[in-house]
Amino acid sequence: MDTPWDDRAVRAEFDTEFRAVVDFARNSRVATGFGYMGPEGEVDTSRPVELWITCRMTHVFCLAALQGIEGAAELADHGIAALRGPFHDEEHGGWYSAIAHGTDEHGAGIPWEGTRKEAYAHAFVVLAGTSAVAAGRPGGQELLDAALDAQDRFWWEPEFGRVRESWDVAFTETEDYRGINANMHTTECYLSAWDVTGDRKWLDRARGILLFVHDRAQERNWRIPEHFTADWKVLPDYNRDQPAHPFRPFGVTPGHGIEWSRLMLQARAALLALGEEPGEWMLDGARHLFARAVEDGWDVDGAPGFVYTTDFDGTPVVRERMHWVLCEGIGAAVVLGRVLADEGGHEEEIESLSKDFATWVAYADQYLREAPGRWYHELTPENAPGTRTWPGKPDAYHVAQMLLLPRLPVTPTFATAIRDGLLAPLD
To answer: Quick check: pTM over 0.90?
Structure first.
């Protein structure tokens, strides 16, 4: 059946917007990586240069370089140099989560006061490394090798089959907390590492994390608990006093349910590509996670848009609308729709996903897309520009990946698929 994500005009529109997003993202370049951009694209120098932003921008510029977009390769190389240089801790290993805009007299990075080593950001070092390798960028293989080594040395806890949350700079004291957000992006980067390296370990680890999330969500009517103790007991009241926290909000995050749904489908596709039976739980879980997140999150409080968080009964808690949730919804609708089409016999569900896709793209055009390449990162509950959690326009990653998904297969992941010539042509 015809779907809107396969429409040539939609794909051409998305391609134009991807190029505009990349062009706007160029403004983030600073001496030691890529900085946090304000509302007009100016770098906010009162903030540190953050590892997760530098990694995600490097990933986006690698995706652009693979498509031959002018100037993207040089920006990708700048990001790789920052990750191999000022961000890397030569004494203790790993990467600082935040550094200053300048270097010391020896050209080394200056750690921002209070910085730690974080699993969330280290996952994006792997993602940047895989994209750099796929794009054939100098230093990419060395970056990826170091990033994967750090996963084994510092982050992976084999007794649990998941990653810990954070360390102090010297890797001597770990945090007594485990989070699903860090493990989500670790799953993403492990799938990408599998595609680039062919080392089955990364695919198996990703599948194991996904099974854990599936089981915990199934126990709670497909709402995913986000916060855990060091031995993985649920902390249902964690950050109740900080409900709009940017990385660890209280309660349930519908956008993460959507994101986990896509990752589950991508891992399933990778297993199928190997001729293996992934288990019914992967498709079943992905469908349930997506449906629950949409039911709880979309258009539930008198205005269109996805709320940021709910409680475990599905009641909205933080009603601000984050751009990344909408982007993940659009992308997951494409992936789930494509998987169901391959399975056959799901015409009504695909039709519903097609309507969601069209509705959410129209919402993005009306409320989130300020101008070509410029997306508000947060809206108020009334859909006006907001600043409660995400002031400015710090990042291009969610938008860029969403804009590519209509032209990509479910597997392999972004950079590998483009490298292998699997990005569907526009004509």
So the answer is: yes
